[in-house]
Amino acid sequence: MSANSWLATGNFHTTYQQEQKTFFTSLDRSVFSFFLLLLFVWPLLFPLSNKYMLVVDNILVAIVAVMGLNLVTGFAGLISIGHAAFVGIGAYTVASFCRTMGDSHIIVTHFWPVLIVISGLVGAGFGALVGLPALRLKHLYLAIATLSFQMIFQWVINFMSFFNQGQTIHVGRVFWLTGKVGRTDHYFFWYYIILVVVVLLGFGVRNLLKTRYGRCLVAVRDNDRAADAMGMNPGLTKVYAFALAGFFAGVAGALHAYLYRGVGFESFTLHESVSYLAMAIVGGLGTLNGSFWGPVAIKFLDLQVEHLAEIAGQYLPSSMNLATALKPFTFGLVIVLFLMFEPRGIANWWRIAKSYTKLWPFRY
Predict the structure, then answer these.
(1) pLDDT of residue 6
(2) Phi/psi of residue 179, each to 5°?
(3) Ranges of the chain whose pLDDT falls below 50
(4) Residue 262: count of CB within 10 angstroms of its CB
């Protein structure tokens, strides 16, 4: 590599320390810093209404959840169809504190960062428990095991009076350094909180993949027998992959509970699990930036379909419920098209664009 990091034209590593750098050139670091600064500044320059700010917050929460799903499905190669249940566990951990102590208790309103971490740890515990069948099962059988956990979760929430039988459990407003977060600043406040969580967890995943534990995930995905022959422990790797996914999902669930100021069963159904899996596929399995592109693409698609249904509803008879039919149709169509024509997801488009900018004007 060139001695001047601004003039580097390629990544020619001579030591392991160089290979483990987060940013290989000064240009990469500068572009990332500018993009990160833009994410923190744009709400101040271009304020949005609460409706659209909620959409942005939902995208960030989905990014946290999909990062965990990508760890277990994309990097470890383990199919999980019950990811929404792990998100629900994080949300209902917050709801459990509200049910036992009250939704305005100081732990809920003032120590909410600790409660978010606790929700992630509870999700990690359940993730490790669900990951135990991965010691013996794989492929379709493991998918059925995770689906069973999703069904068990739904049954427990629907029939236990402690969880209000799936009805909404209210969560109190939180306090910050300036006092209680009001209604007008609620979505604005949680945008910055969730954005900080996304950045921290994103760096955590990036650094994890450079360690022996991250390489174990990829090795087990490619060939678990070869990984075992090289001295790795495929069983332990699969279990902690599910535990990591459960931690990310638990954090996402706690953020969802605080964002909506309530927890309801309808946000953690099997349909939501399929949606998370679709986000990971569309974004790109086994890639970190795919965890960002997928939720953005799917949420933006849902928003556009709703707008299209509203416009079409003005000209079509009221008996035709176009929104009900159009949303699942476009959702399924996008997944099929990506599986057929771009199985590596939007992340592959990003990789091609980066390669083109680095090699231009040369073809090779």
Answers:
(1) 58
(2) 115, -160
(3) none
(4) 19
Q: What is the pLDDT of residues 294-303, one digit of tens each?
A: 999 998 888 8
Q: With contact defined as beta carbons under 8 Å apart, do 95 and 171 qualify?
A: yes
What does the domain layout of the chain look like in residue ranges?
Answer: 46-291
Both tokens of residue 8?
């580097």
Q: In which residue are the tokens 């360690």 written?
A: 211
Task: Assign 3-class secondary structure to 27-76.
Answer: HHHHHHHHHHHHHHHHHHHCCCCHHHHHHHHHHHHHHHHHHHHHHHHHHC
What DSSP character marks residue 172?
P
What pLDDT, on the 0 to 100 scale, is given for residue 72? 92
Residue 319 tokens, joined: 């008996």
pTM comes to: 0.89
Give the pLDDT of residue 316.
67
Query: Would you state the structure tokens that stand for residue 185, as one six-digit string?
Result: 């600043």
Long-range contacts of residues 49-53, Cβ cutoff 8 Å, at least 24 apart: 50/184, 50/186, 50/187, 53/187, 53/188, 53/191
pLDDT value of position 334? 85
Contact 119, 108 (CB under 8 A): no
What pLDDT, on a 0 to 100 scale, did the predictor assign at position 61? 94
CA distance 63 to 297: 11
Count other C-beta atoms under 10 Å from residue 165's C-beta.
11
- DSSP bridge partners of 263: 169
C-beta neighbour count of 49 within 10 angstroms? 9
- Residue 258, classed as helix, strand or coil, is helix
Residues 126 and 320: their CA atoms lie apart, in Å, by 43
Tokens 């990097």 correspond to: 75
How far apart (Å, rounded) are the C-alpha atoms in residues 284 and 293?
8
